[in-house]
Amino acid sequence: MGTKDVNIQNRDKEKLSIVKIGGNIVDNPEELDKFLTDFNKLEGLKILIHGGGKVASKMSEQLGIETKKVDGRRITDAETLKLVTMVYAGLINKNIVASLQKLGCNSIGLSGADANTIPSVRRSPKPVDFGFVGDPDPKKVNKSFISLLVENDIIPVFCAITHDGDGTLLNTNADTIAYTVATALSEKYKTVLYYCFEKEGVLMDVNDPVSLIERINLEEYDKLIQQGVIADGMIPKLYNSFNAISQGVSEVKILHAKNLLTGRGTVLN
Amino acid sequence: MGTKDVNIQNRDKEKLSIVKIGGNIVDNPEELDKFLTDFNKLEGLKILIHGGGKVASKMSEQLGIETKKVDGRRITDAETLKLVTMVYAGLINKNIVASLQKLGCNSIGLSGADANTIPSVRRSPKPVDFGFVGDPDPKKVNKSFISLLVENDIIPVFCAITHDGDGTLLNTNADTIAYTVATALSEKYKTVLYYCFEKEGVLMDVNDPVSLIERINLEEYDKLIQQGVIADGMIPKLYNSFNAISQGVSEVKILHAKNLLTGRGTVLN
């Protein structure tokens, strides 16, 4: 299905915003409060997805759990899984929900196991065994339940924990959860995916906030990669974004968390 | 409203089982698995409420959080609140949900903050300041949302964390949560409250499982207290139970977790 066909289909659908915030906001209580106040003001149907932050790493040290890495990438062993389940699904998730309730925003905290919202598949141990890490499939998302919530004005707040349906919880990348939920729900809604982070958006010069690129399409994206403008952590974010767009998501915005309401940032479509 | 009127009203309502399990089952993976298998087989609409267990105390020691007590009763200070939020709402709650999903039981883990299901009031600091402890009011329970879940065949699994609606999570007694939810929902359903624990029920002789008292009504309860048969931890459990019954709950069963399906235990009504 081409972009044009998708756009025609999207015309009559209700808008649904899927907003992802990273760990750096979660780590800063003042910034988090400010962000949640803005999120509460965002009009229309919406879903929040949050990353983990440094709380888990700090607690890991306190508990003497050794952080295992392969090729610089973290491994989720059994002890680490327990820890991230406690911190992401318990501490962070429930505090965000309580803060939103204070603002009058009726939210509900969810892992992917809850109501089987986001089942995932444990990643193959080859070539690298990342441990209890799961990759979700947009086709398996419990769309009807998530729709039931948003249409009853209850805002889902997802942490980055999923499950394999066989009794095991799995650590999952929060960007991937956002992409998965947005893609799954784009059949029914005009979905807009917001990746909120600590920069203004995609920058021509990573050290210069004024060098913001306001809009990128797939063709320009290929060029920017060739030119080396898009590099490091931005590559998987944009790869996921264009993947989401090709699967029906209307628009992806990459922006600073403080700009959620103005929408100023980089628009991908 | 007398017991007779309540019974007449209950005749046409659909049955809803509210099952509470204590920390001792949560602490034992094999017993927990066996219990969840039985719970899955329990027919009709149902809700699970779980206590905390020893995981929080163990982790508290590991993290060097000092357990504060007044008159032998634990105080929930800010650090302890973080810990129980992680362990109850994160680790235990999500693992129970994942285990139920494995059994094909579509469950959803909730704290009282989620969808504002169980708001509570922080307990007065006088005469004793218990810290971040909340007492819920059955009248404030979000009955419509809990009904929406159970009627969509999604089983709520509550941990013993609530919130004050002003951004603060509160540690709450799991027996009280069970009583509160059962009472709140008895307007709409014929509610049966199961308190599952490690004894056969109310015993004439606490050391003799054969001395089970099969049925107690309010009059007999008063006599048994006078005789000293009901003592210690059993007093608040039975007090809550008869309170629940006077507020519309059809029946309360106090029984060993292994007897959930046979129903063998003490019936209060």
Structure in words:
Helices cover 38% and strands 21% of the residues of chain A. In chain A, the strands form 4 sheets. Chain A has an 8-stranded mixed β-sheet, with helices on both faces. In chain A, strands 3-4 form a two-stranded antiparallel ribbon. The first copy, chain A, is α/β, with parallel strands linked by helices and 269 residues long. The longest helix of chain A is centred in the middle third of the chain and has 25 residues, at 78-102. The two termini of chain A are 14 Å apart. The first copy, chain A, has a single domain, classed as 3-Layer(aba) Sandwich (Carbamate kinase), CATH 3.40.1160. Chains A and B meet through helix 5 and strand 5 of A and helix 5 and strand 5 of B.
The number of helices of chain A is 9
Strand order of the largest sheet of chain A: 5-8-2-1-11-13-14-12
Strand count of chain A: 14
Low-confidence stretches of chain A: none
Write down the CATH topology of chain A: Carbamate kinase
Summarize the structure.
The first copy, chain A, has 269 residues and is α/β, with parallel strands linked by helices. Chain A has 9 helices and 14 strands.
